[in-house]
Request: fold
Amino acid sequence: MLRQAGLRAARRPDDPEWEPRLYWTSARLDGPQNNDGMETKRPTVPAAEEILGGYFTALDHGFVSLVDYMGSDEDVERAARVSYGYGTRKVSATRGLVRYLRRHRHTTPSEMVEFKFHCAMPMFVARQWIRHRTASVNEYSGRYSLMPLLFYMPEREHFALQSTSNNQGRDAAASDEVYREAVQRWERLRADASDGYTWMVGEDVAREVARIDLPLSTYTQWYWKIDLHNLLHFLSLRADPHAQWEIQVFAEIIAGMVKRVAPLSYEAWIDYDLVGQPMSRGELAALSQLVEPSEDGIAARSGAGLNADQLKEAGLSGREVQELLAKLQLPPRPDFDLDLSKMRDAEEIARAMNEAVPSTSE
Amino acid sequence: MLRQAGLRAARRPDDPEWEPRLYWTSARLDGPQNNDGMETKRPTVPAAEEILGGYFTALDHGFVSLVDYMGSDEDVERAARVSYGYGTRKVSATRGLVRYLRRHRHTTPSEMVEFKFHCAMPMFVARQWIRHRTASVNEYSGRYSLMPLLFYMPEREHFALQSTSNNQGRDAAASDEVYREAVQRWERLRADASDGYTWMVGEDVAREVARIDLPLSTYTQWYWKIDLHNLLHFLSLRADPHAQWEIQVFAEIIAGMVKRVAPLSYEAWIDYDLVGQPMSRGELAALSQLVEPSEDGIAARSGAGLNADQLKEAGLSGREVQELLAKLQLPPRPDFDLDLSKMRDAEEIARAMNEAVPSTSE
Amino acid sequence: MLRQAGLRAARRPDDPEWEPRLYWTSARLDGPQNNDGMETKRPTVPAAEEILGGYFTALDHGFVSLVDYMGSDEDVERAARVSYGYGTRKVSATRGLVRYLRRHRHTTPSEMVEFKFHCAMPMFVARQWIRHRTASVNEYSGRYSLMPLLFYMPEREHFALQSTSNNQGRDAAASDEVYREAVQRWERLRADASDGYTWMVGEDVAREVARIDLPLSTYTQWYWKIDLHNLLHFLSLRADPHAQWEIQVFAEIIAGMVKRVAPLSYEAWIDYDLVGQPMSRGELAALSQLVEPSEDGIAARSGAGLNADQLKEAGLSGREVQELLAKLQLPPRPDFDLDLSKMRDAEEIARAMNEAVPSTSE
Amino acid sequence: MLRQAGLRAARRPDDPEWEPRLYWTSARLDGPQNNDGMETKRPTVPAAEEILGGYFTALDHGFVSLVDYMGSDEDVERAARVSYGYGTRKVSATRGLVRYLRRHRHTTPSEMVEFKFHCAMPMFVARQWIRHRTASVNEYSGRYSLMPLLFYMPEREHFALQSTSNNQGRDAAASDEVYREAVQRWERLRADASDGYTWMVGEDVAREVARIDLPLSTYTQWYWKIDLHNLLHFLSLRADPHAQWEIQVFAEIIAGMVKRVAPLSYEAWIDYDLVGQPMSRGELAALSQLVEPSEDGIAARSGAGLNADQLKEAGLSGREVQELLAKLQLPPRPDFDLDLSKMRDAEEIARAMNEAVPSTSE
Reply:
């Protein structure tokens, strides 16, 4: 006979109201937000409604779901106009204004759009994510609830050696042999950690103690609410190739959701932030000696060049010269379209989580 | 012949797209958020929809409008449940949980509900309001736009003397004579300030300079976005009798809006925060000597009493004893229902603002 | 032959400037802040200077060190006085004002005092700690650096069963037998996790990948900077018996440091916050029927009592009645004096950390 | 016979402890922070100590004083090193690291340095300043205290017309005639406002009401505490030529103070932020076609040029092309050295403030 381990005290299964389902599932199924067709006078975005409440899988057991949003590009404009006063109103004007605001770092109007997500991610990813302080978070509590025993297993192609150029990144692929052994070690350790956790909660050890040897690869989940300005800042850092690959996976899905809620802001963010680059005074000094205005545009200054000494004089260290050259090797312009085939419904996701909660046989 | 003063440079009236209306009006009238009947899968609250986009007048020329909201009491519960895990779901359970959370200062789930307001208030009120930093603000810019020349004139009944007990408040009414002279002085000063401003912008003096002698009673306006947790903290301070009366007027309207968006959270806030009181260790020590558990409740401890010396020993200063006695004189339980008769539509409000923008005859 | 595993790329031991010591150690030893006797015109607190830069051990491998501070009680007063204007200045006045401010929740002056700490704690503690967003943090990076392999092992007396009353806490002690088995399991798992980590970094696997199976009991460290207001809020939550015991240990040390930097604010926090309690409107309604002002104090109202029905009428649920009775059972007034015998110097702490960084024999 | 108007209730001049001096003066004179020679183990910066507590005048009646600081460039490095782990320690290394961090927008270590200022500024400046939310503020309260009747009067050279290019700035100088009339109007209005205020507080009208017609040019004052990261962000916006000139005056003084506390961070901020520029993807695309790596540096690509159509294809609007050309016209590299001849002591400043508080003859 099976029972849910450790539920005796906290879940009171003798309580007639007790229901062994993850709350957020039942809420999503029975709650007011699921009757497709509530009318609202609030700004509403069809492309966002299409994915609202759907769960996009990330890594092996993670997900991101857009569960609510407030406002869109028009609300960025509206907030800006209250500052800038009178004006016209056409789609082209909205796009122009949104791009102008972003280009000139007028960020407060972007705070007027808000997103709420439900996400699950490995704890080492959660620890990077939570460093962004300008967001609201409610995380699944391992003190109160039993942890689903789900662990992140890196795939072969993302198992790599320490980078020699980027001191905190990864680089060349590791050998098959090393990968095989790593997987074996991971599997063994997680089996032991799961055993230990299940045994302890079965012995009624306090959950806050039982969990302390779960590995950082264990999945956790949270609700996360953040405004558009701070979300784009998060994405600039976490959709960047310097971020750990695993958090990039989440950032890319979220970027795809932003594209649906506020497409003009998203586009401006790509062009001015994500694939833009800051130029220092030294870099501008160098460039200003190499190009000049032409009759109807801009042109290379004939024969101009700067050697290492001249660049140093302009204030650029050797490393900065390399950085400048790298900036001028334009990266591809990424696009973050959601893959709708990865969208699951809440039921299915909740069932998987639920089944991973430890149970013991009596 | 009339013209809008100072609009030559900034508003480009020769631009065929130029429209001399306040932007937020036209947005509200023509924008996507006004077609009553967009369908959404987001949590939707009928009592909030009823007032959405309506303008509630405050003081003589001010207003508060709820222009958007995200979530409701159920979303507070949902966020809490992701932390607390499994559970049941009935209305009574939502109320109980929301009250439990507030009583025990578990405030993060309340951050999951968001409000957006459009407000106009005198600048001396705005200066108190803006001190609440955990909000997003876009204010009408006196550098870019012409200021509507609207000033707050205190009514007779709110014109009072400096309080002798509360060093920053007001107290007994001033005499009719003093009020009459005050009104005359205010009227004269505002006429002069309006003249000066209108003259300067007519001479094309930079608006950021022209405005510097507008009085603090001049109305400004902004969009203001804040989450439920921080909004209730704002209301606890600003709907309190110690706040300046003029900001209380705004706080009371906003409280009425909170009641419509999240009625259970509102009720819990009234009971546990607004008319609750913190008790110090000294106060608890005193009370614990005066009352005791009874068979099925709580009772006065027969014959118990504490004199001044004993209260001092319990750690209470003379001032704190007075404060304790004051806490035990229960204030009435306020209720902040919106007065729907004060609801105006955006058109009407915008017209009034627009007409107050200075114009000069040529 | 020994080598520091995985240091080949990142640490460049062939670099003549390379030094195999933890940076913060050498900084503390050689830096400008260690010459006892720099003169300053800044507010300086001798009791704080006495412990500045000392390391207080916490749990088995953790620590807290106060590495810098700005201001003291007098600066709280000064900030308040700029608001309240003119006044007198005696020590008794400072104490009275600081207590008045705290009692009435005038918290902004407390933001004028700042603390900087260097701390090491298990990751499950760090994950609770980091939820306090109004602080600045720089954490040791497992992407860049090798993790010291130090793990938290609960002692016998803190190994307990899940609480039946507090759904997220611990309660009765577990049996010796269960503890023995738990320790065995922990030791085995940590040996395996250490082996795995050391093997992977030895194979030059990217550190950000190698670390993903370190358990949550692994120690991390950070610099943490926060103002007095937000620090006291942190302490109210984390020095509270409902907090996980392990984070209470840290909170108590930090409280002892606050006592040295700003003793009057500390004392007021104890009296008004830590062992104070909020009273709801219902609780005040009940109490106001049981006590009354007396000639020179306060007294029980003769014969007064409230039974279950009457308490319900006053708005108190059964659970709230229990909570009220509990509040009136005054807890002891805690005091958080630092145990100076637990103070170590930076050198010693750094050496222990350094020795725990994995190394492999070739 | 003279008396301080309106002080009867609040200041209790019959109180033997009452002293009619601004608190912050007496604090600065008698407090512990003024005895030149307290010893501290905290990081101490001689160049900062030299100006600590001195008051730098700004505009006609304003000031900025650095009253406390925590940390310096070495503490930025120390915080970064705890993340980056092991390393070397030379002055050149500190500079290199500080510049690397700023160039790559690693901003969290900069949060580890803190500043506290005492400032006085016209209210229209204060209203812009307070929009920076990541700071702590205690402002002089016009509800509690009498306002000093000091008003900002623009000088001839800063009295200008509305800009035709920058919709919120000023541009060409206005005529002498207009300036003369403006001054007359300002003087008359301020005399009337002062009269009205003095009369009302003399009649004991509540101060919070009496002040409502003070003009925005009235000076207020506050304590302001902020970390280096957020301060540099403030300075990037407010020391910029697009900011209102009057707030630039304050930003420049503060920048000079930053230079004394953390000179390497200051220098990096100038080079990478203040006179740096963000480049969009379109701008990088254009530039990458015009320049190329050369053997030992970087060179113009011979004969390369982009006409209007090609620039449009690269994604640049006409306006953005103008912006790009403007970026390449390198602005001068500003330097913000403090003018020590403008440093006053607290006594002198406090006296001036004090004398401006209204008094009436009986």
Notes: Chain C touches chain A through 62 residues (CB under 8 Å). DSSP finds 15 helices and 15 strands in chain C.
